[in-house]
């Protein structure tokens, strides 16, 4: 393009060509762009003082500062608009074309400030009417597309589709507008994808593919692959999605466009995330991170840090998740601060403007009649009251918004902490569960060893002693010696009975073979004493409970009855066990001396209550104690049965 400019003889035409060249370099090399503007000024000489060329210089200079200094760019765009509005008739049509571009660029800067609605208004009220005056189909189609893109960003997909159709009707047959048509079809496909109109999106992408092959070096080719990848991910064709995104990434790297590279890497993350491939998803986020961190966009950093936190949680990398969540919080706080600072500056500007207006009104009022002065003062009061109301409304809105966002942030933090806490609790319960199962297995082993080993030995000794006694009786041995041997045999009988009782307590046969109801009934009978009666009642108990559940409930009852026997001094104990509405209800009550509920009293009772609480916690149950000195004691347990499907059998 620069070589072709050398063949142009007309200085003004050459200068405009240099300005167009600067517009191209404004996206790639600011120094080159400013250099070509300087060359154009030298060629124009004193003509840059005219409204037309002065407006052009302001417009192209604003384009250079579009990314580097948006505020300066906006001022230059408005200077260009002011100058181009005053051109003579000979240059009016060309000026109108530039004015349409000026307002489009100015609106794009507003869009970057999250003022998308204002940008749409500018397009509809300024840009499109100016484009219609030029009768330039391509320019009009481009701006219909700009309206559609902003409506799409505002999630007004149906309205956006209407303007995309208008743009298509104008640009579809424009063979010399391949770049514009590629942009249009890609964005229309994206809008259809957002609206979940996948067939329509596929049609648009097919046409875009044909155009992309005609202009392979277009900066919008990577965007085509981005949308194509998103489409294939949406229809669950993940292999094709990765193929498009990888090809787009290669093209973006060739173009050395960091913004496109980060966009494509983030889209790859979304595909992996959608396919629940969390390890690869995290890898893509870490590739995106350097591009995001070297930009000034806090919103992009906030998004990447948040996804890194949630992805590492999915991978159970909780310590790393906390680190990313802290980074997310810092960026979020900065966003709130920047937004609040901008609102405060805007309010201050409005307030200062109002104060200046008040001063002017005050000076004028000094030279007018008293009645007019009173009227002016009344107007000032109304303006001031309106301003105060506006400040109050904006301040209150800001306060409520900040409070709501802060609450949301706290809730997210609490959820993350709760998830970490649950993880630790599950680990603790798993360890305690293993301990209880080990304890019950050891009890079972001891019961078998006592019953089968020591019990058999004692029975054998008894039988041999009985045989010796019988022989001594036949041989008429001393009656005293026979009596001593019979006393020993009686003591052996008692020892065997005691051994059976201990073995039964360690692992009751009734629990293993007849179920919970019979086991508790046998327990109550075995623990009944002459000084203490135990009454047992049961309702609707099933026979298919898990072994660990049976043992846990049995041990809870056993511990409670042992405590009653040792400490309560009661003569009557009532035990009730029932199941209702998927909840097992267990209560043990006595008419004993009771106790005062405190840490000291609980410790005096011993480890029994501690073991009971631990067993109930393992079963996700609820434990209540109702007691008072001299009033007896009641112990109530509720265990949800639907939780027991997660309790493994021993």
TrEMBL record:
This is Oxygen sensor histidine kinase NreB. Residues 553-643 form the Histidine kinase domain. It is an enzyme of class 2 (transferase). Its cofactor is [4Fe-4S] cluster. It comes from Pedobacter antarcticus 4BY. Residues 337-364, 406-449 form a coiled coil. GO terms for molecular function: 4 iron, 4 sulfur cluster binding; ATP binding; metal ion binding; phosphorelay sensor kinase activity; protein dimerization activity. Keywords: 4Fe-4S, ATP-binding, Coiled coil, Cytoplasm, Iron, Iron-sulfur, Kinase, Membrane, Metal-binding, Nucleotide-binding, Phosphoprotein, Transferase, Transmembrane, Transmembrane helix, Two-component regulatory system. It comes from the Bacteria. It is found in: Cytoplasm. GO terms for cellular component: cytoplasm; membrane. Its main location: cytoplasm. It catalyses: ATP + protein L-histidine = ADP + protein N-phospho-L-histidine. InterPro entries: HATPase_C_sf, HATPase_dom, His_kinase_dom, Sensor_HK_TwoCompSys, Sig_transdc_His_kin-like_C, Sig_transdc_His_kin_sub3_dim/P, TPR-like_helical_dom_sf. The chain crosses the membrane at residues 380-399. SUPFAM superfamilies: ATPase domain of HSP90 chaperone/DNA topoisomerase II/histidine kinase, TPR-like. Member of the two-component regulatory system NreB/NreC involved in the control of dissimilatory nitrate/nitrite reduction in response to oxygen. NreB functions as a direct oxygen sensor histidine kinase which is autophosphorylated, in the absence of oxygen, probably at the conserved histidine residue, and transfers its phosphate group probably to a conserved aspartate residue of NreC. NreB/NreC activates the expression of the nitrate (narGHJI) and nitrite (nir) reductase operons, as well as the putative nitrate transporter gene narT. The keyword Translocase does not apply. Its EC number is 2.7.13.3.
């Amino acid at each position: 393009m620069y070589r072709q400019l050398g063949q142009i003889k007309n200085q003004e035409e050459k200068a405009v060509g240099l300005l167009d060249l600067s517009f191209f370099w404004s996206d790639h090399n600011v120094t080159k762009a400013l250099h070509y503007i300087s060359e154009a000024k030298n060629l124009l000489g004193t003509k840059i003082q005219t409204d037309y060329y002065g407006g052009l210089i302001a417009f192209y200079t604003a384009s250079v500062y579009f990314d580097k200094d948006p505020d300066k760019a906006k001022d230059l765009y408005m200077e260009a608009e002011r100058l181009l509005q005053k051109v003579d008739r000979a240059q009016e049509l060309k000026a109108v074309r530039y004015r349409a571009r000026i307002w489009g660029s100015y609106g794009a800067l507003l869009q970057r400030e999250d003022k998308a609605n204002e940008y749409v208004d500018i397009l509809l009220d300024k840009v499109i009417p100016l484009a219609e005056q030029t009768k330039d189909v391509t320019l009009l189609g481009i701006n219909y597309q700009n309206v559609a893109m902003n409506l799409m960003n505002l999630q007004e997909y149906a309205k956006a589709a209407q303007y995309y159709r208008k743009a298509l009707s104008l640009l579809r047959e424009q063979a010399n507008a391949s770049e514009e048509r590629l942009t249009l079809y890609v964005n229309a496909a994206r809008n259809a994808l957002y609206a979940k109109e996948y067939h329509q999106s596929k049609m648009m992408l097919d046409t875009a593919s044909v155009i992309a092959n005609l202009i392979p070096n277009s900066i919008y080719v990577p965007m085509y692959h981005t949308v194509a990848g998103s489409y294939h991910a949406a229809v669950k064709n993940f292999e094709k999605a990765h193929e498009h995104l990888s090809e787009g990434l290669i093209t973006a790297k060739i173009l050395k466009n960091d913004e496109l590279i980060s966009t494509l890497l983030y889209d790859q993350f979304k595909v992996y995330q959608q396919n629940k491939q969390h390890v690869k998803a995290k890898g893509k986020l870490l590739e995106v991170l350097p591009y995001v961190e070297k930009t000034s966009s806090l919103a992009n950093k906030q998004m990447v840090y948040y996804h890194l936190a949630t992805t590492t949680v999915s991978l159970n990398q909780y310590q790393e998740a906390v680190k990313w969540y802290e980074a997310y919080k810092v960026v979020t706080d900065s966003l709130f601060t920047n937004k609040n600072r901008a609102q405060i500056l805007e309010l201050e500007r409005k307030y200062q403007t109002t104060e200046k207006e008040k001063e002017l009104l005050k000076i004028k009022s000094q030279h007018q009649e008293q009645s007019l002065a009173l009227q002016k003062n009344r107007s000032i009061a109304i303006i001031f009251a309106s301003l105060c109301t506006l400040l109050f409304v904006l301040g209150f809105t800001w306060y409520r918004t900040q409070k709501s966002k802060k609450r949301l942030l706290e809730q997210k933090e609490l959820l993350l902490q709760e998830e970490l806490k649950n993880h630790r609790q599950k680990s603790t319960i798993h360890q305690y569960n293993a301990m209880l199962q080990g304890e019950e297995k050891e009890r079972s082993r001891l019961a078998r060893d006592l019953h089968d080993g020591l019990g058999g030995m004692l029975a054998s000794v008894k039988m041999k002693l009985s045989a010796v006694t019988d022989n001594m009786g036949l041989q008429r041995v001393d009656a005293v010696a026979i009596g001593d041997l019979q006393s020993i045999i009686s003591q052996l009988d008692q020892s065997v009975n005691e051994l059976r009782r201990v073995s039964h307590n360690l692992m009751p046969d009734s629990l293993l073979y007849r179920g919970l109801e019979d086991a508790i009934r046998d327990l109550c009978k075995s623990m009944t004493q002459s000084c203490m009666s135990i009454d047992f009642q049961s309702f609707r108990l099933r026979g298919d409970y898990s072994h660990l559940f049976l043992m846990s409930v049995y041990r809870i009852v056993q511990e409670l009855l042992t405590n009653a026997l040792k400490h309560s001094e009661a003569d009557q104990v009532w035990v009730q066990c029932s199941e209702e509405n998927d909840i097992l209800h267990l209560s043990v009550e006595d008419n004993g001396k009771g106790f005062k509920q405190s840490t000291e009293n609980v410790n005096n009772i011993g480890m029994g209550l501690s073991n009971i609480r631990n067993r109930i916690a393992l079963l996700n149950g609820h434990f209540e104690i109702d007691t008072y000195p001299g009033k007896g004691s009641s112990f109530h347990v509720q265990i949800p049965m639907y939780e027991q499907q997660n309790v493994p059998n021993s």
